[in-house]
Amino acid sequence: MIQDEFKFYKPCKLLQPYVRYYWVFKSNQLLNTLTFPIGCTQIIFHKRTPLYIPELNTTQNRFTISGQVNFSSHLYAEENIEMIVVVFQPHAMSTFLNVPTSLFYNQEVSGYDIESKNLNELAARIFDCEDNSRCINHIEEWLLSQITDTLSDATYKTKRITAAIKQIYIAPATPVTELSSIACLSKKQFERLFNSLVGINPKEYTRIVRFQKALEQMQHQSGEINQAQIAYASGYADQSHFIREFKKFSGYTPTSLLKVSNPYSDLFTSPV
Questions:
Q1: N or C: which end of the chain has fewer CB within 10 A?
Q2: C-alpha dihedral (198, 170, 257, 245), degrees to nearest 10
Q3: Which residues lie below 8 Å from residue 226, measured CB to CB, with a gap of 6+?
């Protein structure tokens, strides 16, 4: 009998600039968990029961593209869960899907709606394969096959946005005008390209990064947390700003979250 089982996989070296990691989850128990915005997009393959998201009043398709979100959400499934997930680097998913990531903002979209023959063929291979390690190999083969001249043509654009994202990770309070300067683009050009590749506007993305930095700070503190210290380290203007933003993205104040779950930063923690 399957119990809860989580397994992470590291992408091959060529794909690491585009994919953070893959994970597989199996369970035959009731799932009811709270998730937060992580700043990355995902492709999800459900081999068994898809997840229900009450905040969107939707059940994920067995083959789902999950965009950037700016809200916390609950994930429900009654039993018999088996899912494979590709977690992309923030800017990378549109490179493989050939559509702007902004189309998936705050949405769970069926991968079949993309109407991509080779993507549908990948999904068919995944659902026909019982060995999940082999499924990861299928995914890697497909991703590598997409690294073509089209990808090369887009490299200079992604490098501009990657440089800005690195700066956001270091200092989330960096103004958009400074980020656009780092990307060597006008503010309007930068915002348009960022939204297309990352799937959310730069200002809102920095808010998610700040929130994830705060989770990382809390993750590594034991006992009572120092909210003023976390606010400063995460790039918030002050403690009240930190508490207000934290509640916006998690549904809890920092201290009340500690009573219901252990803080964990998906963005600033590498499981592989």
A1: N
A2: -70
A3: none
CA distance 89 to 5: 24
| pTM score | 0.94
Strand order in the sheet with 81-88: 5-9, 19-27, 81-88, 42-46, 63-66, 108-110
Q: How far is the C-alpha of 161 from the C-alpha of 155, rounded, in Å?
A: 10
Contact 79, 32 (CB under 8 A): no
pLDDT at position 48 over 70: yes
Residue found by looking up tokens 């200092």 in the block: 171
- For 100-146, the pLDDT digits (tens) are 999 999 999 999 999 999 999 999 999 999 999 999 999 999 999 98
Q: Which amino acid, one-letter code, is at 268? A: F
Task: Compute the C-alpha angle 106/85/42, nearest 5°.
Answer: 30
Length of the chain: 272
The tokens for 34 are: 């709270």
3-state secondary structure the chain: CCCCEEEEECCCHHHCCCEEEEEEEEECCCEEEEECCCCCCEEEEECCCCCEECCCCEECCCEEEECCCCCCEEEEECCCEEEEEEEECCCCHHHHHCCCHHHHCCCEEEHHHHCCHHHHHHHHHHHHCCCHHHHHHHHHHHHHHCCCHHHHHHHHHHHHHHHHHHHHHHCCCCCHHHHHHHCCCCHHHHHHHHHHHHCCCHHHHHHHHHHHHHHHHHHCCCCCCCHHHHHHHHCCCCHHHHHHHHHHHHCCCHHHHCCCCCCCCCCCCCCC
Distance CA 43, CA 64 (A): 6
